């Protein structure tokens, strides 16, 4: 298994997004799945790491993937 530390419920989403839920939450520095908090942290960190601010495209990519993973989890909870 590629991610031995991932619980089975997260396995499907992890393979889709290549990032665990826990890792995504750590990247955006959030402690709960609140859509407003996710969006706020995403916008702040994405802009902070923009090339025009001297940031890193690599970090922006990680931030973007983290938001995708969290958005996917939020959608699952709503459905």
UniProtKB/TrEMBL annotation:
Pfam families: Pam16. GO terms for biological process: protein import into mitochondrial matrix. The keyword Mitochondrion applies. One of its GO terms (cellular component) is TIM23 mitochondrial import inner membrane translocase complex. Keywords: Membrane, Mitochondrion, Mitochondrion inner membrane, Protein transport, Translocation, Transport. It is a peripheral membrane protein. It is found in: Mitochondrion inner membrane. InterPro entries: J_dom_sf, Tim16. Belongs to the TIM16/PAM16 family. This is Pam16 domain containing protein. It comes from Asbolus verrucosus.
């Amino acid at each position: 298994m590629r991610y031995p530390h991932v619980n089975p419920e997260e396995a499907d989403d992890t393979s889709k997004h290549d990032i665990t839920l826990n890792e995504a939450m750590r990247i955006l520095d959030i402690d709960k799945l609140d859509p407003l908090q996710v969006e706020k942290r995403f916008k702040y960190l994405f802009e902070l790491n923009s090339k025009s601010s001297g940031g890193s495209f690599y970090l922006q990519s990680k931030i973007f993937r983290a938001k995708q993973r969290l958005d996917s989890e939020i959608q699952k909870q709503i459905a």
